């Protein structure tokens, strides 16, 4: 035993370097790519597949592609014809909005960014006031700028709105409307009053059970029937109502999940302090509940953003709709791939960005699993 | 000090009516109800007014009227003289077809990719992640349009069809033509034997389990079972003189005649929906398997259970509990997304019924109500099924 | 070292090294355990105690050195690993009971599917062991319905159901509420009295003093001291051991 003891004392505190095959690039390669013969086979198969797909794609998209020019005659190389996108780019962005009025759209988005920027600065102290204020004021300002008819700005009918601009309008209105509506429906669903609860459950389950396209059909076909004759409902407005109500139902379920996660003790403590129902919800429960389900809320927003493409079926020209329409132009036949790749890229950037933000927020709020 | 008897047994004083929460609740509800009913009445009045003004009929009589249009794919008999009611069923069956094929493909692909994301092979895990992150963040309508236009329009005209395996299969922009199987008299026997084999395999599995319980000896039913399911019908097939012939598609003057056609719209829609939903299913599978804590696997290994046994008895039962509820949600989403078929002209339910029939008859209220009814029924059925499954399988806790 | 061990130790660790990435977690571990011996491994957290005993049933792989368990050397050979795991039972800090199976089903799973025992025999053994750990009436309950102490006792019974020659305990009472620690320690003491070979990582020094034949103190990946409890507690040799004991025994 003394020898063992002596040995132990001799190496006390001294760490040896690990064997070469266990650490470093070689080890990583061995463990992750070539661990077993089966693994090796799969790795080689994947590498072969990548070799077959990736270089030809880059050939088509970048190296052989045509970037400059103005018409299809400039697309001669057999690769991607990005000239098509370039030629139609502003239309894809603004739709049919009159060119000389496009500054109004730009101004509105600049104002939005200016209003929202302080919310991302950690040390800004009036976030709630700013958010509430912008929520109320911005829609009015934006509507004035986009539609016009006041302050000397000429009217631009909603039929002319299109492209990414229209997508952002629909998504924005949907998001802004669906969150408060969703909260109301979620609270209603958990209410003690049976009639209120029944109505909320019915609304939520119906909206969640049917495809969005049927809601849009209903909005575009049936809404005119619901109104007295002569009252015309703007086509875009019908779509906005449909999208907002649809999204509100999904948001309601997300918020309900958050409400259920708040322990009963919180409700009891608030009531013990004498807070009324709305004060309790607004000051104690909702702040906690909403923070818990931020990932779910952002996911619903992402879904909403993707769902805006459905308005092309009822005749509105969102980004996808206007690309699809451009493809039918006789002078640009055959470039469907370029068009859809471009549109796909635009959507992907927005959605992926939102989902990364959601992960960031989740991590900041202390998510994470232990093994 | 004892409480005086007279003070016991008296109910607390009730508050004045306007402060009594129960009364308030009733008042709120009555007001809400009145408000909703009034609003509904206003809408109904306007609707009736507008409908009669536009000369649109009411009621469901339109279902008996002839449809007057052709449908490219019908799983039941249909002609232009069939009633609108028939259109309803034709469309519904087309939707069900897309949904079933889509669900099967999406599940297989989703599980493969979900497991790939958990693979220890870095390359495979990364590729699977790229797939999920790309597909999930692009709208499904765009993917449907992409598959339809960009891919399938690259197919040739019928007279330039691509032929596979000699003259057996043809591919052109009208569809994928395969030989149509023609079942002759003897085939009934093959089907019967297959059924018998199926029952036999179930019985075999049961017997093997009982034997293992009694004696501890394991029996691998997989190989024998497969052999029975494939071998027995095969033998019957040969003995019955191969009662199966094929009607081959043949090149007519302008298009192919005969054989079975797979519409490009169906193929595009199914591919788009499957690949899209598979990305979501992959995430669900991944979350399910990750939800089984590593300690479970360690305990199973420490007991001597081998890898396959650990998966079968410890990991998969627990993972399935977490996977199945969101999985059924995705199945429902796929079915609802199939309604986007209207964008590429696949004759699904929403396209032929809510689209064409509504346009022709103008009876928006009835048609949309029926459409929503169909989807609602599907959703509620699935919810009920899932609730029943959840209750049966929930982990028992204190 | 006491123990009626026969002519060779049942567990032999010689020159065992292990790294987690660049971190040298086990440094030249040498230890012998004889049949019937009770070994208690203690030390500050991060010292590698859990890693060491998890190497004995190959839940962790050592990178240098030799580990021989009951005459079988632990290498990458799957057959050897399976054979070893049949003879070595393990009890975890967080129980790791299978929540979708009843207590009895937890016990009979491995005997039925690893030792190919008939179901009736496995159940009889299971019930006998549940009685031995004092909770025969919980046989048909699910882990979620049991208290922490009961769950750990079921976990011990589950490991015993495979009739192992060696039992490893990885901090079995660290996740228990104080009032349940005693019931689990009582079961372990019973097991020790019946002659089971045990290697136990624990902070319960009272248990160690009464049951252990050999105390092993580990710090920063190496075995600093090994001695019988009488010497270990009264006369620790190394300064690090003295420091540790002063921290542990002060309450």
Question: What can you tell me about this protein's structure?
Answer:
- The complex is a heterotrimer of chains A (371), B (398) and C (251).
- Chain A has helices at residues 2-10, 25-32, 37-63, 82-94, 102-120, 127-147, 163-189, 194-209, 212-226, 235-261, 264-272, 277-292, 294-307, 319-327, 336-364.
- Chain A is mostly helical and 371 residues long.
- In chain A, α8 (194-209) packs across α10 (235-261) and α10 (235-261) packs antiparallel against α13 (294-307).
- The longest helix of chain A has 29 residues, at 336-364.
- Helices cover 63% and strands 7% of the residues of chain B.
- The model of chain B has no long low-confidence stretch (mean pLDDT 84).
- Chain C is globular and about 55 Å long.
- The model of chain C has no long low-confidence stretch (mean pLDDT 91).
- Classes of the chains: A mainly alpha (371), B alpha+beta (398), C alpha/beta (251).
- Chains in contact: A-B, A-C, B-C.
- At the A-B interface, α3, α8, α9, α13 and α14 of A face α1, α3, α4, α10 and α11 of B.
